[in-house]
Amino acid sequence: MKVVVLNLKFLLIVTILLAVVGQSTALASFGITPPYVRNTSLTRNSTYEQQILLVRGNPDVPLKAEITIDAPEIQDWIEIVEGYSIPLPRGVQKVPMIVRVTVPSDADFKEYRGAIRIRTVPDDAALQAGAVNISLGAQVDINLNVIDREIRDFSVRKISVSDLNEGHKLGWLYFPGKIRFGMLIENTGNVYIAPSRVSFRIFDSTGTVLLEETEQIGRIDEISPYDTKEVFANLPTRLQAGSYLARYTIYNGEEIEQEGEVNLSILRHGTLQEAGFGFAGLSLPHKISILLPIFMFLIVVIYFVYNRRLLRRRSS
After folding, report:
1. pLDDT, average across residues 98-113
2. What is the pTM of this model?
3. In terms of residue numbers, what domain contains 175?
4. For position 124, which CATH number holds?
C-alpha cells in the first residue's frame, strides 16, 4: 500500500514538473524568420534591405531584443534600421527588423560571411517589477556576394487599370484619353530599372476586332535594386466611350517580360475629375500646328531686333 502511495506521489510530482517546464518553454519560445540575410548579386554602391521577423510564442511579458553584429569584414556595411535595441511589446507576437546592407565603392568582388546575434532581455519596466530574466537568442546568418556584373531584371507581381474619360477636342486640337496602367514591379536585379516600354492592343468587348494600338508616353519611374514598387505607364487612346478588351505587353529592353489581358472602361468626357493628356498627348501634326507659329514669331522678332541694332551701328 505504501509503495502504491509513493508511486502516485512521484507521478504527481513528475506531472507538475512537466507542466511547469512545458508552460515555461511555451512562454519563453522565440524565433526568427527568415534566419538569414542572403544576396549573391550585389554590386559596388548598391543598397539591399531584408526584413527579419522576431517571433514570440506567448508575448505576455514585454521584452527587448539586443542586436550585435559579428562580421569583421563588413561590419560597417550593415545597419539595423530600428536600432540595436528593439522593443518587443506585450501582446505583440511578431516584430519586424530591417537589415540594411550598403556596399562601398571599393568593395572587393568576392563572398562575405558573418552573423547577426539576437538576445532577448526584459525591458526596464519588467526589471523594476522583478520579472524573471529568461534570456533566449537566435542567429541570423549573413551571406553576401559582390560581383562585377550588372543584372537588369524584374518581375511583375500585379497589374491594374483605372476607368478613364474619353478624349476631347479643343478648337482644332484633339486631346486623347489617358489610360493609367499600374504595375507592381519587383526589381530582381542589382541596378535601377523600369519597364522599357508598355504597349496596348485594344479590341472590342468580344476581343475579336482590333480597334487601336498604343504605347506609353513619357518615362516610367525606376525601381531601386531588390525593391518592390508600384509604377504607372500612361497610354493615349482616341477611342470613344465604351467597354473594350486590351491586350498589354510589358517589355524589359527588347524582351517581353509579361503579356496579358485587362478590361478597359472608357467613360464620357467629364465623367471623372482626373485630367487627361495635355500637350504630350497631341498628335505630331497638332504639336507642329502649335509650335510652328511660335517659332516663326520668334524668328521674326529676332530678325527685327538684329536689323535695328545693325542700323544703329551704321548710323553711329
Report:
1. 95
2. 0.71
3. 154-292
4. 2.60.40.10
